[in-house]
Amino acid sequence: MSLESTLTLRRGFARAPLREPGEGHAPLPECLRGAQPAGDAPLLQVDGVSLEYRTPERVVRATHRVGFDVHAADRFVLLGPSGCGKSTLLKAIAGFIAPVEGEIRLDGRRVNAPGPDRIVVFQEFDQLPPWKTVRENVMFPLLASRSLGRREAAERAAHYLDKVGLSPFADAHPHQLSGGMKQRVAIARALAMQPRVLLMDEPFAALDALTRRKMQEELLALWEEVRFTLLFVTHSIEEALVVGSRIALLSPHPGRMRAELNSHDFDLHSQGSAQFQAVAQRIHGLLFEQEAASGPQQRP
Ligand SMILES: Nc1ncnc2c1ncn2[C@@H]1O[C@H](COP(=O)(O)OP(=O)(O)OP(=O)(O)O)[C@@H](O)[C@H]1O
């Protein structure tokens, strides 16, 4: 499997009931099992969450009874094929969509609306208002939410622009920046709000391979420094293993929990290693074995 292999192009997943991890194939090695140490209260709890879209013609179930816990300073990755409901789950955690079943809790309190404790970084480069400078973009949510006064917001913005290496571009406008730089501004803007959880929806998917790798590296360096809690959506197995400390594997549409595993042993330097490749293959098997067993089918 190539390092850049992703799950996007795979279509036609089987709809047979999903097997539990460990059933019908070798159990996950101990180092990959997803259990958390006891006694550590989760920061974010996704508990039996089903999410649906209702159109005049039909109801689309995006996820079915998905559950997982995210702990403080986790880099928790939602990994699964296109259409399995990753973005929908992230929007529900952000408070934009209400579950039809189950509950999402942050610090033990039910999530029922967006809030400054959950900030989203999207894939699109146009998430920055183009008429504002880089500094103004980072300050804007701090001022709009009345979290800080103007002087403190400017100081906070300067701090996080420095963290993402963009201090020299504070007075530039978004159209003067590359795609990677725009994503750095979006990350600085999100971190400046000091959210309880930073939500990232395929933030590097639209970048070229080299920039994407650099951004992954920078994100990990930033995490080492700030130790924020991250919930990161991707359909790239390699990106999940590099960025994540824990990974939830979701089955094809509608998304259900397929497996949960630890991945903190890997970083960008592990990518060529035999162990990394073996785990990537193992995840690939978990995600696609049913398709291989049943042959291709049309997705609804
Ligand atoms: N606004 C919408 N109205 C109706 N159905 C939708 C809407 N948005 C998403 N869906 C459907 O919900 C399911 C989950 O979509 P979602 O975008 O969450 O998947 P995903 O795993 O993030 O996919 P991708 O990796 O391609 O972004 C899909 O079947 C999709 O077609």
From TrEMBL:
Residues 44-277 form the ABC transporter domain. Gene3D superfamilies: P-loop containing nucleotide triphosphate hydrolases (3.40.50.300). It comes from the Bacteria. SMART domains: AAA (SM00382). The keyword Nucleotide-binding applies. Keywords: ATP-binding, Cell membrane, Membrane, Nucleotide-binding, Transport. CDD domains: ABC_NrtD_SsuB_transporters (cd03293). Pfam families: ABC_tran. GO terms for molecular function: ATP binding; ATP hydrolysis activity. Belongs to the ABC transporter superfamily. This is ABC transporter ATP-binding protein. It comes from Xenophilus arseniciresistens.
